[in-house]
Amino acid sequence: MSSVPAPARRAALITAVALTGMAVVAIQPGIVVAPGVVVPGDPAATAANVAADLEGFRIVVLRHVAVVVLDVVVAWSLYELLRPVNRGLSLLAAWFRLGYSLAYWVAVAHLLRVPGLLDPTRTGLTGTDMELHVHAALEAFSVGWASSFVLFGIHLLLVGALAFKADYMPKILGLLVAVCGLGWLADAFGAFLLPETWHPVFVFTSLGELLLIPWGFWIAKRDGLRG
Description:
Elements: H1 6-26, H2 43-52, H3 54-82, H4 87-117, H5 120-123, H6 127-165, H7 171-193, H8 202-205, H9 207-210, H10 212-223
Helix pairs in contact: 1-3, 1-10, 2-6, 3-4, 4-6, 6-7
């Protein structure tokens, strides 16, 4: 494996820092607003669950916002990291992650509406109407976020291919990132085609992207940040 160009080393470190922040935010309990909160077919129970811990709900939403911001940072840093391999493909990969980030943000916007929907003085909604709107907003978030995984999976496939081709990155790392992308694609289509029986596989395939964290810190420590 050859030495990493100085701009790519800095990008690798930024990627590692951003992914670390993302992991810290995402691994906290409750990042997925569904289990125990959204009750399928029962808007009244769903609205009651959110209202019972509205501050906790707001914290979850802020964590989603933080992840979206960090995703934009990673889109740029991975572009800089992989630009020496193929500028066009690296830019395409960045656009796919930015597209994912935009779709993710649109989904999160539905969550941002929920506290207001629970306040009848702001919306005029009460009773069943309020409950239906809250339930619909949470369902829209879940569907929108899950749909965005297609863009995320394609992004990781491109990143994996570029990392595999890079002479300054371990080929096994590129392969694992590509497998991670396949996992997200499988989950996106599996949840859509088999909503009742599909079991997420990203838990088993996400190692590839996570390995960019220790690799980025190691490269920055080994070679430094200056050329």
